[in-house]
Structure formats: structure tokens, C-alpha cells
């Protein structure tokens, strides 16, 4: 659970063709884009339905001061769009529901200086539910009833006494 799932299979728009997905990982130096209207498209891991909590650009050594996050289904339907609050690079107001399997997230960058985004890393915090998860529903009485013999509880205690001598007789 505490193991990060690094971002893979990213499509970079406005970056050098030699740019790799690993450059987006937090803790790396980040991606330097060469176009001002740059963005990335990140597919969610196959076979899962994510519940997204936060998308951000955590690197503080960047000119990015805003992001727009768009989540799209596999058929191209836009499921979610949100811009980060003014002068921040974090979106954290996602619905508490799963996005469909094979969805993608597109992140567009706004910069402080109008130049291409520099030193960009991306953090996506999400819970992933396997798409083959099964919900089990059971029927019973409410409140639950206990059958069989009623257990008894026995409490015992031991007391110790300490006496103190004053040394006088």
C-alpha cells in the first residue's frame, strides 16, 4: 500500500521525443517542455478503476503555477475537468467514486512567466480497485442474534499490600 506506482506510458505533447516517463516521477529533476501549450496524457493502470484524490506538480523548482486536470473515459467522454485554485498546482476536489477502467488523465500546465513548463514532476494519489472485485452481500437479522449457551465472565483480582517501616521501634 505504501509502495508508489510510478507513472508509465505517458504521451508528452510539447516535449522532446527523448523525454521519458521516469522524468515525471517526484524526486527526479523533472521534464523541461519546449512549447508553452504543453500537456501530458497518462493512462491509468490497466484492469483497475481508480478513485482519484489528488493530482499535483510537487516540484517547487518549477515555473508551473497552475494545472488543469481532465479525466476521460476510453470512448473519449470527458468525466471530470478541474483547474487548480489560483497560484497553486494541485487539484484535490475529485468525486468520491471510481473512474472507469482504461480512463486517462490529461494535465495541462500554466506557468508564472508564459514560457514552456520547466522541471515538471507529477504526483497522482489514487486508490485503485481491481475491476474484477466482487461485492458480497449477506442477509441476516439486525441486530445480530447470538445462539447457543450464554458465556459467563469471571473477574478475579489479587491485592498486594506494601508496608513501610519508619526505622523506629
Helix/strand layout:
Blueprint (H helix, E strand, L loop, with lengths): L10 E3 L25 E5 L4 E9 L7 E9 L5 E6 L6 E2 L12 E8 L11 E8 L39
Features:
169 residues, mainly beta, Jelly Rolls, five-stranded antiparallel beta sheet, three-stranded antiparallel beta sheet, 8 strands, 0% helix, 30% strand
Written description of the protein model:
The chain has 169 residues and is mainly β. It is built from no helices and eight strands. The strands form two sheets. The protein has a five-stranded antiparallel beta sheet with strand order 1-2-7-4-5, with no helix packed on it. A three-stranded antiparallel beta sheet has the order 6-3-8, with no helix packed on it.
- Give the strand line-up of the largest sheet: 1-2-7-4-5
Q: Return the structural class.
A: mainly beta
Report the end-to-end length measured between terminal Cα atoms. Answer: 68 Å
- Integer count of domains: 1
CATH class assignment = Mainly Beta
The rounded Rg comes to 28 Å
| Helical percentage | under 10%
Mean pLDDT: 82
Instruction: Figure out the total of helices.
Output: 0
Q: Give the biggest beta sheet.
A: 5 strands, antiparallel
How many runs of DSSP E, i.e. beta strands? 8
Amino acid at each position: 500500500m505504501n509502495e508508489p506506482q510510478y507513472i508509465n506510458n505517458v504521451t508528452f505533447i510539447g516535449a522532446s521525443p527523448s523525454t521519458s516517463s521516469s522524468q515525471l516521477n517526484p524526486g527526479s529533476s523533472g521534464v523541461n517542455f519546449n512549447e508553452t501549450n504543453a500537456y501530458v496524457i497518462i493512462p491509468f493502470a490497466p484492469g483497475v478503476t481508480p478513485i482519484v484524490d489528488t493530482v499535483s506538480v510537487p516540484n517547487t523548482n518549477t515555473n508551473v503555477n497552475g494545472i488543469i486536470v481532465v479525466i476521460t473515459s476510453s470512448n473519449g467522454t470527458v468525466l471530470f475537468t478541474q483547474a487548480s485554485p489560483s497560484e497553486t498546482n494541485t487539484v484535490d476536489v475529485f468525486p468520491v467514486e471510481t473512474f472507469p477502467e482504461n480512463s486517462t488523465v490529461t494535465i495541462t500546465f500554466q506557468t508564472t512567466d508564459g514560457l514552456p513548463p520547466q522541471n515538471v514532476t507529477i504526483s497522482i494519489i489514487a486508490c485503485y480497485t481491481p475491476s474484477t472485485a466482487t461485492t458480497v452481500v449477506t442477509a441476516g437479522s439486525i441486530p445480530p442474534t447470538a445462539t447457543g449457551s450464554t458465556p459467563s465472565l469471571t473477574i478475579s483480582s489479587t491485592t498486594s499490600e506494601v508496608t513501610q517501616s519508619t526505622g523506629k521501634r
